[in-house]
C-alpha cells in the first residue's frame, strides 16, 4: 500500500521534470534569441545618486551603437587606402552588416555651412566675442585681414556670407573640424609618424549581443581580414566595439563552462564509480543533479529574462553541491545493505537534508540581498537548483533506488575516513584547532583589500590595447569618466555647461586638457547667444539691441536702426556693394534653438550627449587627453549642477561598501545557523556542529592572507557559501553517524565524498578567466577543504574497538 503513493509522487515529479526540460529547451533555443547576456554593463549595480546619472552612463556606453570600428594602417599611404577599400567592399557584401562605410559618398561641403547661416550673428567663439567688445575694435581692419587670409583647410562659409570670419571661426570649433581624421581620396585618413590609418565602420544588422549576429559578423571580418593580409601583408588592422568585448566575454564563459562542467562531471563520475562500484548510483546521482540544473535555468530565465555569464559558469560549478543530496541518500542505501527500504531511507536522511538545505539557502539568500544583478542571478540559480535537486531525493529517488545496493561503499574510502575521523575528533582535535587559530593570526594581519571593478570585468589586454590605439589615432571612444550637467530646463543646463567649458578652456590653454566634446560647443545657451548678438550689434548699430521681448528689439526694428555702418565698412575694406548689401540684409538673423540643433543632420551623431525625459534634463561633457580623476573632479568645484561621473570608480567604492556590509551579514548568518543547530541539537551540542564551518572560514581567510590575496567582496560572498556548504557536512555526519554505527567511518566517508565532488566543481572556478569567479573558486576550495577535514569535531571520536 505504501508503494502506490511513492510511485504516484515519483510519476508526478517525473512529469514535472519532463515539462521543465521542454520549457528549458524552448527558453534556450526555441525563441530565436539566446538568453545568454554578454552585455557586461547589465551585470553591474547602479552606482549613481539618481537615475539621470545612470541614464548618462548607459547612453555613453551604447553611443557607438552596434557597429565595428576598424582602423586599417600601413607605413605606405597607398597600401593603407587600398587595403581599407578592399576590406570595406568585402564586409559590405555580407548581409550581416546593414551598412559599411569605407569610401565616403559624394558630399557637398556646403551642407556643413548653409544650415548655420540664419544663426550666424548668434554664434561666436569666446575669442571673437572678446575681440569685438574690446575697446578700439576696427571693423574695417578686421574685414581687410579677412580678405587677405589664405583659404582655410577647414569647412567655412563663403567670404560674402561671412566677411568677418566669425561663423568660420565658430565652425572650426565644431566636432567634425577638430577630428584627427580628415577626408582624403574619398576616405577618412589619419596621418602619423608610423604611417597612415584609414577608418572603416561596419554597422551590424542586429545587436552586438545577439549570438548569431556575433558569430556571423566575426566570421565575415576574419575572412575579409585574411584576404586583406594575403594581398597587403604590410597592412594591419585595429578593432574596437561592443561586439568584440561581448564576443571575448562569451568565449571566456564558454571556456570556463567547458572546463568546470566537463572536468567536474568526469571527475565526479569516476569518483562515484569508484565509491559505489556500480553504474546505477552514478546515473541516479546525475539524473537528480540534472533535474536541479534544469530547474535552476528555467527559474532564472523566467525571473530575469536572461542568463549572465557568471551565472552560466557558476551553474556548471553548482553540480558539485547539488549532487550532495543524492549522494547522502545513496550512501544510506549502500550502508543499509540488504535491509534497505527506500521509504525508510527517505525518512532517515530527510532531517539532515532539510537542515543542510536550509543552511545552504540561507547563504544564497544573503547573496540575493546584494543589489548586484550578477550575484542575484547566481543566488536565484542556486536556490532553485538546490531546492529541486533536494526534492528529487524525496520524490523520485525512492523509485529509482528501490532495490538494495549491490555493494557497500568502497572499503578503502571507509578505512581512510575512519582513520582521519579518529584523528580529527575528541579533545586533542579541539586543542589542534586552537593552535591552528593562533597560527592563523599572522595571515589575518597580512590581509589587504581590493575593490577594483576589473575583478568582475577583465577584457583581453590585446583588445584593450587596440581600443586605446584607435582612441589615440582617430579620437573614437573615450575614457570611463565624463561630466554630467543637470538643470531644471534646457537653458539652465546649457548655461551650467558653459560655466564648465569656460573653465575647461583655461585648462586647454594651460595644457592640462587637449579638448572636450559637449552640447554647448554646438548649441550655445540663449543667454550666450544674446550676448553674442549684443556684441555683433555694436558693430552693426553702435548700440546693443533691445531684449527679444521688447517690440523695439524685433529683427525688423533692429535691422532698420542698423543700416549703413557695416555696409560702409565693407565698401571701405574692398567688398563689392552687392555683397555688402546682401550681408547687411541678413542681420540680425535668429537664435539657434534646441529643436534646430536636433533637426540638423550633422549633429545627429551627438544626440546621445543630450538627455531629456522622465529622469530630468541634462548633458554629457566628454574630456579628451586627460584621465586623472582627481584633476577632472576639480573642474566641478563651485559649479552647481555639474558632477564628475566615473562608473568604474563608483562600482569600486560600491564593492568596498558591500564588502563591509558582507562582514556583518556573515556574522549574522553564523548566528542564525547557530540558533538552528541549538534548536536541533541543544545548546550543549550546537557549538560542536557549528565549529567546523566557523573554523573553516577562519582558516580560509588566514590562508588568503598568507597567499597575499587581498580580500574582495567576492571572497566574502564565497565565505557565506563556505558556511552553508560546511554546515552541510557537519549536519550530514551528525545525523548520519547513528544510522551507520554498524559500519564505522561510513557516515564520514559519505561526507568526504560530498566534499570531493564539491571541490571538483567549485574548486575548478579557480581556473576561470574571470577574476571574480577565480576568487570564488579559491575561497571555496580552501573553505570546503578545511571544513570537510574538521567535520569529525561535530561528533564524538569513534572507539578503537569498533575498528
UniProtKB/TrEMBL annotation:
The keyword Coiled coil does not apply. It is a multi-pass membrane protein. SUPFAM superfamilies: Multidrug efflux transporter AcrB transmembrane domain. Residues 194-424 form the Membrane transport protein MMPL domain. The chain crosses the membrane at residues 258-276, 283-305, 311-331, 352-375, 381-402, 423-445, 664-682, 689-707, 713-733, 745-767, 773-795. It comes from Luteibacter jiangsuensis. This is Exporter. Pfam families: MMPL. Keywords: Cell membrane, Membrane, Transmembrane, Transmembrane helix. It is found in: Cell membrane. InterPro entries: MMPL_dom, Mycobact_MmpL.
Amino acid at each position: 500500500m505504501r508503494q502506490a503513493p511513492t510511485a504516484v509522487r515519483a510519476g508526478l515529479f517525473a512529469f514535472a521534470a519532463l515539462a521543465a526540460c521542454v520549457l528549458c529547451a524552448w527558453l534556450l533555443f526555441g525563441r530565436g534569441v539566446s538568453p545568454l547576456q554578454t552585455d557586461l554593463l547589465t551585470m553591474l549595480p547602479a552606482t549613481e545618486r539618481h537615475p539621470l546619472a545612470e541614464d548618462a552612463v548607459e547612453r555613453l556606453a551604447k553611443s557607438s551603437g552596434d557597429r565595428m570600428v576598424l582602423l586599417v594602417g600601413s607605413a605606405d599611404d597607398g597600401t593603407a587606402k587600398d587595403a581599407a577599400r578592399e576590406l570595406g567592399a568585402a564586409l559590405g557584401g555580407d548581409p550581416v552588416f546593414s551598412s559599411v562605410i569605407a569610401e565616403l559618398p559624394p558630399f557637398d561641403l556646403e551642407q556643413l555651412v548653409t544650415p548655420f547661416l540664419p544663426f550666424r550673428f548668434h554664434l561666436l567663439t569666446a575669442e571673437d566675442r572678446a575681440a569685438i567688445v574690446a575697446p578700439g575694435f576696427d571693423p574695417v581692419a578686421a574685414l581687410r585681414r579677412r580678405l587677405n587670409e589664405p583659404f582655410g583647410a577647414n569647412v567655412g562659409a563663403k567670404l560674402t556670407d561671412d566677411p568677418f570670419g566669425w561663423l568660420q571661426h565658430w565652425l572650426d570649433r565644431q566636432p567634425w573640424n577638430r577630428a584627427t581624421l580628415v577626408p582624403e581620396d574619398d576616405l577618412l585618413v589619419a596621418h602619423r609618424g608610423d604611417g597612415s590609418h584609414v577608418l572603416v565602420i561596419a554597422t551590424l544588422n542586429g545587436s552586438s549581443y545577439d549570438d548569431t549576429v556575433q558569430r556571423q559578423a566575426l566570421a565575415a571580418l576574419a575572412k575579409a581580414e585574411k584576404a586583406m593580409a594575403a594581398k597587403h601583408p604590410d597592412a594591419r588592422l585595429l578593432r574596437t566595439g561592443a561586439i568584440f568585448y561581448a564576443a571575448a566575454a562569451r568565449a571566456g564563459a564558454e571556456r570556463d563552462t567547458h572546463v568546470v562542467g566537463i572536468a567536474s562531471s568526469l571527475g565526479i563520475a569516476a569518483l562515484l564509480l569508484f565509491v559505489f562500484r556500480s553504474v546505477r548510483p552514478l546515473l541516479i546521482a546525475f539524473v537528480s543533479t540534472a533535474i536541479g540544473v534544469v530547474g535552476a535555468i528555467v527559474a532564472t530565465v523566467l525571473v530575469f529574462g536572461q542568463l549572465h555569464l557568471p551565472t552560466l559558469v557558476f551553474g556548471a560549478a553548482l553540480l558539485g553541491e547539488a549532487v550532495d543530496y543524492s549522494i547522502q541518500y545513496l550512501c544510506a542505501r549502500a550502508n543499509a545493505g540488504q535491509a534497505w527500504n527506500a521509504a525508510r531511507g527517505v525518512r532517515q536522511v530527510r532531517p539532515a537534508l532539510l537542515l543542510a538545505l536550509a543552511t545552504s539557502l540561507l547563504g544564497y539568500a544573503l547573496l540575493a540581498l546584494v543589489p548586484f544583478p550578477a550575484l542575484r542571478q547566481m543566488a536565484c540559480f542556486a536556490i532553485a537548483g538546490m531546492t529541486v535537486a533536494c526534492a528529487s531525493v524525496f520524490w523520485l529517488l525512492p523509485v529509482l533506488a528501490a532495490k538494495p545496493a549491490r555493494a557497500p561503499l568502497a572499503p578503502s574510502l571507509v578505512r581512510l575516513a575512519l582513520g582521519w575521523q579518529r584523528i580529527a575528533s575528541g579533545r586533542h582535535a579541539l586543542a589542534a584547532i586552537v593552535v591552528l587559530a593562533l597560527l592563523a593570526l599572522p595571515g589575518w594581519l597580512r590581509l589587504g583589500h581590493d575593490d577594483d571593478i576589473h575583478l568582475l570585468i577583465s577584457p583581453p589586454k590585446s583588445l584593450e590595447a587596440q581600443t586605446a590605439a584607435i582612441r589615440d589615432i582617430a579620437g573614437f571612444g573615450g575614457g570611463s569618466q565624463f561630466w554630467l550637467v543637470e538643470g531644471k530646463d534646457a537653458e539652465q543646463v546649457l548655461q551650467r555647461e558653459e560655466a564648465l567649458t569656460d573653465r575647461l578652456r583655461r585648462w586647454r590653454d594651460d595644457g592640462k586638457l587637449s579638448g572636450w566634446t559637449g552640447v554647448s560647443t554646438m548649441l550655445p545657451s540663449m543667454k550666450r547667444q544674446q550676448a553674442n548678438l549684443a556684441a555683433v550689434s555694436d558693430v552693426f548699430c553702435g548700440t546693443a539691441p533691445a531684449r527679444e521681448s521688447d517690440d523695439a528689439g524685433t529683427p525688423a526694428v533692429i535691422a532698420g536702426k542698423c543700416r549703413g555702418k557695416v555696409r560702409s565698412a565693407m565698401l571701405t575694406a574692398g567688398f563689392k556693394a552687392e555683397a555688402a548689401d546682401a550681408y547687411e540684409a541678413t542681420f540680425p538673423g535668429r537664435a539657434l534653438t534646441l529643436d534646430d540643433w536636433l533637426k540638423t543632420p550633422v549633429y545627429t551623431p551627438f544626440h546621445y550627449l543630450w538627455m531629456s525625459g522622465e529622469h530630468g534634463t541634462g548633458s554629457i561633457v566628454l574630456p579628451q587627453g586627460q584621465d586623472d580623476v582627481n584633476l577632472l573632479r576639480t573642474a566641478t568645484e563651485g559649479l552647481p549642477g555639474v558632477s564628475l561621473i566615473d562608473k568604474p570608480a563608483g562600482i569600486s567604492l560600491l564593492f568596498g561598501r558591500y564588502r563591509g556590509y558582507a562582514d556583518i551579514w556573515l556574522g549574522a548568518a553564523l548566528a542564525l545557523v547557530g540558533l538552528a543547530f541549538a534548536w536541533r541539537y541543544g545548546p550543549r551540542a550546537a557549538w560542536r556542529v557549528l565549529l567546523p564551518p566557523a573554523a573553516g572560514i577562519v582558516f580560509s581567510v588566514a590562508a588568503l592572507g598568507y597567499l597575499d590575496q587581498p580580500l574582495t567582496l567576492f571572497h566574502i560572498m564565497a565565505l557565506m557559501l563556505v558556511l552553508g556548504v560546511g554546515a552541510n557536512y557537519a549536519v550530514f555526519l551528525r545525523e548520519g553517524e547513528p544510522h551507520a554505527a554498524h559500519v564505522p567511518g561510513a557516515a564520514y566517508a559519505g561526507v568526504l565524498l560530498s566534499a570531493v565532488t564539491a571541490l571538483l566543481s567549485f574548486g575548478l572556478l579557480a581556473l576561470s578567466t574571470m577574476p571574480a569567479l577565480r576568487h570564488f573558486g579559491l575561497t571555496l576550495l580552501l573553505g570546503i577543504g578545511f571544513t570537510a577535514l574538521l567535520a569529525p569535531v561535530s561528533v564524538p571520536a569513534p572507539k578503537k574497538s569498533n575498528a
